[in-house]
Design goal:
Blueprint: H1 3-18, H2 24-38, E1 44-51, E2 54-62, E3 68-70, H3 74-82, E4 86-88, E5 106-114, E6 117-126, H4 134-149
Antiparallel strand pairs: 1-2, 1-6, 2-3, 4-5, 5-6
Helix pairs in contact: 1-2, 1-4
């Protein structure tokens, strides 16, 4: 199966899972579980939500994680500050990387926008270098959009 087909199927699974449920917290919890179950070679999948000038840990699957990340710090904070997804082949080469799990080697982070404002980020880590590529990024951005489309987001 091609990556494009895989992510199309993953988005369809998420859409089905979220049918008749609009709760943001419940939906992000199920989305992180689905990602952790279906993506190969990852060790963490979850969400950080924006509160003031920091990101706070939301629903996730994997080892315990950093609870708070300042906007502009690490890969997650950089994605939030720049408003752009981050695809990092080697987190150890990323300036200011925050090592919540020393085993993580690559990462993809997608800012989540609704109603013209950023709510937080979707963060996925892998123990393998260069685990994610442009196709993964596009597929995960589409996944995030399905989540947003099926959820009543806070403050939106």
């Amino acid at each position: 199966m091609s990556l494009t087909s895989f992510y199309s199927s993953l988005c369809a699974q998420l859409s089905g899972l979220l049918t008749d449920e609009r709760d943001w917290l419940a939906n992000t919890a199920n989305a992180s579980a689905l990602l952790f179950l279906e993506l190969r070679d990852i060790n963490w999948a979850g969400f950080y939500f924006l509160y003031g000038d920091e990101l706070r840990l939301g629903p996730f699957q994997g080892k315990p994680a950093c609870t708070r990340i300042a906007v502009g710090s690490g890969v997650c904070g950089t994605a939030l500050a720049s408003g752009e997804s981050q695809l990092v082949e080697d987190v150890h080469q990323f300036p200011g990387h925050i090592a919540c799990d020393a085993v993580s080697a690559s990462e993809v982070v997608i800012p989540l926008y609704a109603g013209g404002r950023c709510l937080g980020v979707l963060d996925i880590d892998s123990p393998s270098l260069a685990r994610f590529d442009a196709e993964d990024l596009a597929g995960l951005e589409a996944f995030a959009q399905v989540l947003l489309d099926h959820s009543d987001t806070p403050g939106a």
